[in-house]
Amino acid sequence: MSTFWSIWVSVIVLGTIFGCWWLLLATRKSQTTDTETDRTTGHSFDGIEELDNPLPKWWFYLFIATCVFSLGYLALYPGLGNFKGLLGWTSYNQWEAEVQQAEARYGELYAEFGDTPVVELAENEDAMKMGQRLFANNCSVCHGSAGRGSLGFPNLTDDDWLYGGEPENILTTLRQGRNGNMPAKGMMPNMTSDQVDQVVNYVLSFSDRAKDPEAAKAGEAVFAQACSACHGSDGKGNQAMGAPNLTDDTWLYGSTYGWIKETVMNGRQNQMPAQGERLSEDQIQILAAYVYSLSN
């Protein structure tokens, strides 16, 4: 936060607190008496008159105590722009402390399964209950609570894997993450609009869905130049590179003419964040077993 906005926020916060304080004291002083009275303020509505009575003392002092508490809180914790508070508390530090407590408490439970092979672990009911919770907390926001994915996020319950679905592939993905990059127009940045149409039709021809057979025939040469380096000459992909198979019915970004054309024209970039720094090796082992179990 810049210095200007830090001062702006601080002025608004402190101004509000001291404004409330002044309002309480000013209202208190304007009272004609410190006890209940029959004198009215001159306001009346529907035959009901407003008496000029002061706030009950306990209520007045409670408001004052609230203002004092607010100032004390802002002195100890963040709340005034860039001022970090005398205690130096941050939400990140709080999270780290809670994670350390959780690791101390549950670390032994995770360690029970950490040395068990993924395939064997996938058949352990207790381990899978733990894996499901790890998945819900760390993976479901992208892949869905059931692991079925959505547009741009892979389905983990089928047998179509960009980088391979064997235990070691899944462990590597979890530890290191993945960075997918489909360059715009592939390896042929000077591709014309006609060539885009041709290569899209050629890709659709893998599943007998080409709109224009003649364009699809011409697109074979374009595909060989722009796409085959990653997807292979037969379009069946390359798991070592994360290049998808274009001949099946599993598509990460949609398989219609429009979706494929957009992919060719603009490219695709996606990222599977690494979990190696967030989860322990035992947790990754259990999580990998759970993901493996979804498609096995």
What brief labels describe this structure?
296 residues; mainly alpha; Cytochrome Bc1 Complex, Chain D, domain 2; two-stranded antiparallel ribbon; two-stranded antiparallel sheet; 53% helix; elongated; ion transport; electron transport
List the helices and strands and how they pair.
Blueprint: H1 3-30, E1 40-45, E2 48-51, H2 57-76, H3 91-111, H4 118-121, H5 125-138, H6 140-143, H7 167-176, E3 178-182, H8 193-205, H9 213-226, H10 228-231, H11 257-266, E4 268-272, H12 281-294
Antiparallel strand pairs: 1-2, 3-4
Helix pairs in contact: 1-2, 5-12, 7-12, 8-9, 8-11
Describe the structure.
There is one protein chain. With 296 residues, the chain is mostly helical. The protein has three domains: 74 residues, no CATH class; 98 residues, Orthogonal Bundle (Cytochrome Bc1 Complex, Chain D, domain 2), CATH 1.10.760.10; 92 residues, Cytochrome c-like domain (Cytochrome Bc1 Complex, Chain D, domain 2), CATH 1.10.760. Helix content is 53%, strand content 7%. The protein has a two-stranded antiparallel ribbon. A two-stranded antiparallel ribbon has the order 3-4. A hairpin with a 2-residue loop joins strand 1 and strand 2. It is elongated and about 95 Å long.
